[in-house]
# Entry
Amino acid sequence: MIQNLKGEVHELLTRSEKHDTGFRYRFVGSPAYLRSCNIVFGDELSFEFHNSTKLLKMTKVVHTVKKKNPSS
# Structure
């Protein structure tokens, strides 16, 4: 279960993997959910995992800034 920044809880399939001192999470088959949260490939997401409720809580989204090509 994942809680987005609006507090809405959705049931999504995730995979976790150990990474350095923490974990990385991957969403499986959830492009519609990510679009509904205005999240695109390359955005950085931060989560907290609450073991007692098994809830993965989104705490922060940092959107990727795309550089524009300078005009010639």
